[in-house]
Amino acid sequence: RKEVEQDPGPFNVPEGATVAFNCTYSNSASQSFFWYRQDCRKEPKLLMSVYSSGNEDGRFTAQLNRASQYISLLIRDSKLSDSATYLCVVRLYTGFQKLVFGTGTRLLVSP
Amino acid sequence: ETGVTQTPRHLVMGMTNKKSLKCEQHLGHNAMYWYKQSAKKPLELMFVYSLEERVENNSVPSRFSPECPNSSHLFLHLHTLQPEDSALYLCASSQGGDRVDEQFFGPGTRLTVL
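YS: structure for the whole thing
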């Protein structure tokens, strides 16, 4: 079983739509949770951290359910510039601190 | 632009060649990482250096050899690679310790092994 599992997509949505991505993780000892964004042929960059209480950053809302080992990202009012791959990431301690990445969910926003 | 640079950006090599990838970070971080990114696979952590000490990652073949001469520079030495080693190799840095959460990535080296 993959440590971090995501639907690869692609999710094709029109501008202005609301879209949600989900992610599950297998290790209950996971300590911290994040969404990274990776544009085509570019490096990943941190989008936002995910907290148990849920957190929002502009049009982006992240939620964490530790009991279900489930993370979500909601994007409201999608923009063309939101087109990218969204990587679900967890932090684990396995003798050293490391980040474990999901395969990513690809989003395509069209005019 | 990130504070992590990588050279070369593209590399084509034969299976008998020896080459090195270079990474440099200008962020004052004390941890550096090598990742491999293949199509339709998640980023695979290859090596971690924290305060210039290497953290073992046993799943990486010995044809990949990392070197971290100081906290700002990281190398990945390659020899007798296989075609399946063709991938994007990403370097990253972070503050390390409990502050490993945000890692800053370089643009990557796209490697093709013929």
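YS: worth flagging: The first strand of chain A starts at residue 4 and ends at 6.
IM: good catch. Also The two ends of chain A are 37 Å apart (CA to CA).
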